[in-house]
Amino acid sequence: MSIESQATRDRILDAAERLFGLNGFPCASLRQITDEAGVNLAAVNYHFGSKEDLYKAVLIRRIRPVNEERLTRLGQAEQLAGDQPVPLRAILDTFIRPLLRRAANELPGGMPFLRLISRDLTDPQPFMLDEMVREFDPLVARYTRVLTQTLPGIPLSELFWRMQFTIGGMLYAAAHQHDFERTSCGLCRENDLDGCLRRLIDFCAAGLQAPLTKAAMQPAASTLQQNALLHYQ
Amino acid sequence: MSIESQATRDRILDAAERLFGLNGFPCASLRQITDEAGVNLAAVNYHFGSKEDLYKAVLIRRIRPVNEERLTRLGQAEQLAGDQPVPLRAILDTFIRPLLRRAANELPGGMPFLRLISRDLTDPQPFMLDEMVREFDPLVARYTRVLTQTLPGIPLSELFWRMQFTIGGMLYAAAHQHDFERTSCGLCRENDLDGCLRRLIDFCAAGLQAPLTKAAMQPAASTLQQNALLHYQ
DNA sequence: AGACGATTGAAACGATTGTTTTAATCAACC
DNA sequence: GGTTGATTAAAACAATCGTTTCAATCGTCT
Fold it and tell me: What is the pLDDT of residues B209-228, one digit of tens each?
């Protein structure tokens, strides 16, 4: 592979990342992408095979370093903790920071990539499902192990749900971070990585270690609560 | 409008809801929709004007009752609380239950609608933005007022972010509820409205009333934390 | 210099899209 | 009972899509 052909590959990847992120996979046409990249239309099929394969390449190019950084930071945190359990907020930091960092212009990708990965994790393209599972499988194993050590009082079934809520909050914040300045009436400034990260960790740490309600400890006894309002009074 | 034409309108709306929810707006074609509805292709443009207007009609038909139910339940909760602030978990229940209820076959719409609304709130179709703001504006005003009364210690700027995380967790859970049974290795059963609702409320209530970290109380002093791991040890 | 594989360029292909058009059918009313 | 307006049916429209084809060009070797 020559050095110029690598340049066209990269230009295609950059343009595709931006347009897939802004418009989504179905609405970003190859002609838009190749025009913006300044390359010929046929270059996509020549270098990547198909539109779907281009999409895979765009996602994998960014997700893999993010997940590697997550595991690296988690390893450092474990080392630092010694034989003590890793502090919950440190675990969350290793998980969230590598992603949100990409939107703060600290690293390539930026806002379009965050919208792209957020969209594809909340609403996956069918042909990406297997690929995604393969990329995230090692993470699931490592984080569940660390979390069960840090939060020994939380049953695994509860932990599973709470991690889903954590991921949901993270992805929603990642996708909308740049809209918040406009929709928050001045309560949020753009590109405030530290602020967003701290708030998200505050929120999710509290949620993850929330005390168990009666229903959570006796799941078999939970029944439909007809009037939930009374229950909370 | 005759009674049969209303029937074709409804058949189109039902089929569109299912296919928009499953495949997304761009990938669900009008021919798919009209075939499944058993009506002629031109009926969509005749009754709704365009594909975009059909999409609007599909969303509004379900969102409006959900938001009305939210405000009704919130009103009941306020009445029940008297001059006391409404309990946080009760507020969250009025907000989340009317949506998740739709997926538990308690009400029409079901899983496709939840995927649809979840997708359009996390990744809105551009032409729906104004319509959505109009539908949700009254909610924002009411819920921020009630929440500031219940959580007087949380600054508005923090509350804004925490509500975004709450919404993100709710939408993610709503969209994936039916996948969890498959991906959770038996930790989650499908259609468990009460279980999902309780866990989500446990999580978000703890997150919303989480104690403020130093950075949250002195936002001006927050600087980029180069090595966040040490910070948590 | 010449030959060969890799890459690019321009054009066309077949399929599908949302929309429009035109005629046929239906229901209701004077 | 014939007429009018609403609704449905079938066909065609123009545009765009991803992909393929084939010749032209480039870079790199012998």
Answer: 999 986 666 544 333 344 44
